[in-house]
Amino acid sequence: MSTMLKIDDIHVYYGAIHAIKGVSFEVGEGEIVALIGANGAGKSTILKTVSGLMHPRSGSISFMDEQIAHMDAYKLLRHGLAHVPEGRRIFLQMTVQENLEMGAYIRKDVSKADLDMVFNYFPRLKERRKQIAGTLSGGEQQMLAMSRALMSHPKLMMLDEPSMGLAPILVDQIFDIIKQLHKDGTTILLVEQNASKALEIADRAYVLETGNITLSGTGVELARSDEVRKAYLGG
Amino acid sequence: MQILQYLINGISIGAVYAIIALGYTMVYGIAKMLNFAHGDVIMVGAYISFCVTNYLGLPAIVSILAAMIVCTVLGIIIEALAYKPLRGTSSLAVLITAIGVSYFLQNAAQLIWGSAPKNFTSIVTFKPFSLAGGELVITGEVIITIVISVLIMVGLTLFTGKTRMGKAMRAVSEDRDAAQLMGINVNQTISMTFAIGSALAAVAGVLLCSTVPTLMPTTGSMPGIRAFTAAVIGGIGSIPGAMLGGILLGVIETFSKKYISTEFSDAIVFAVLILILLVKPAGLLGKQVQEKV
User: Would you say residue B80 lies in a domain?
Assistant: First the structure.
């Protein structure tokens, strides 16, 4: 297994606030890696820093052996790194179809094969393709956000809280699709507050607390660990 | 019949406001800033057109194209030098800078062309035609202005609705970060928006001075503010809103000048703005957007 994403001792600040205090971790090709931790631990900040929406003050990030720590966000998708941000951030005033077109923006044209590929994962979106995205339900919006990211054929897909605000049955559906995407060859970096769900599908996981990684291990190990059970799995 | 005459004249001047308002609204929608120098770009466009016809003796169409090219470049330069370095800082800083750019352009124009008004020669050469036995006169300027404004609106609607670049603009307008995650170069998109807005300003400048032929360094400032008002009335950020607001404002202005008072026409226009905003705070066609906290 070769390393796809390597984060080495990054420090990230919001103005004067030191949000990420020297975090290092790796994602290997073909893995599902989960970052778990409480609200405000810095999970989303790490993803934003990897995708170039924020930049670390020090430390390095390499993706497929290329230094990306100071690359502009819009260039990263071309390298095969897609980010499904927290809160979905779909274009609410555009149609489902237009959102998908934006997902394929870097390839200039939208092929029927790509649309079929995402509709295969998310059949419900097919019926709704002419609908304005803002009128979709929360679950459908999450599906659209993931589909939009898929349109670029990413090598690594970073998902920020895909289960947020969804009914349990939908959470199960979304996680099934993540597993399917992984099986079909996409490497996944998953940020979740729903630790039990995340650890269930993760090959490896890291626990983040106030800007530091405090624990790491395989998904199974962490799910069994006393500390994690107490803090994140409800005893 | 007289009312109809004023209505037509009002629509025509309103169509000019609408073209200016489109520039305001596009830049606001995409760059999230009020470019108060927009009115002065109009003035520059009019001067360029004036110079090309009067000093170089070239035909009107060439003068319009020259004005559009110069203003496009000017718009891109203004954005790159004055606004881009301020991206991510407070919107107040950008606003003050825009006002500074506005004064800079007016003073530069004064240095280059002097403060004495120039007599702009209309680009329209065909004769007005009369209807209803001479009671209704429709000038060539009125026809050209209305036709061009409709073409511009249809063009922009198709551009933002159908093209890849236009959709990218809408994406940036809605969510800048998410747009970047789609691989859209936000800086380039904003620059493009300024280019389009400024090219429209050039057209508006030529049309404005063809109707009201006095050209001086402050020529763009009041129409610029009226057009901004028009954009707000229509719902800032909305293309049809800018068009509707512009025409509404032109008609109100013309009628109040005729039937109430010339001096108070601006006061009346702004009173209408206040009334509309009281009832519809987002403007007539604006979307009520919830501020994220």
Answer: yes
Please give the Cα distance from B149 to B62 (Å, whole number).
19
Number of domains in chain B: 1
Q: Is residue B290 part of a domain?
A: no
pLDDT at position B291 over 50: no
* CATH at residue A76: 3.40.50.300
- pLDDT tens digits, residue range B52-93? 999 998 998 999 999 999 999 999 999 999 999 998 888 899
Strand partners, A217: A205
Residues of chain A contacting residue B174, judged by C-beta atoms under 8 Å apart: 91-94
CB contact under 8 A, B181 and A75: no
Range of the domain at A29: 1-80+191-235
Closest partner CB to A74 (pick from B170, B174, B184): B184
DSSP states along B78-121: HIIIIIGGGTTS-HHHHHHHHHHHHHHHHHHHHHHH-SSPEEPP
Gap between the Cα atoms of A76 and A83, Å rounded: 10
Cα(A164)–Cα(A150) distance, integer angstroms? 19
Q: State the ipTM, two decimals.
A: 0.93
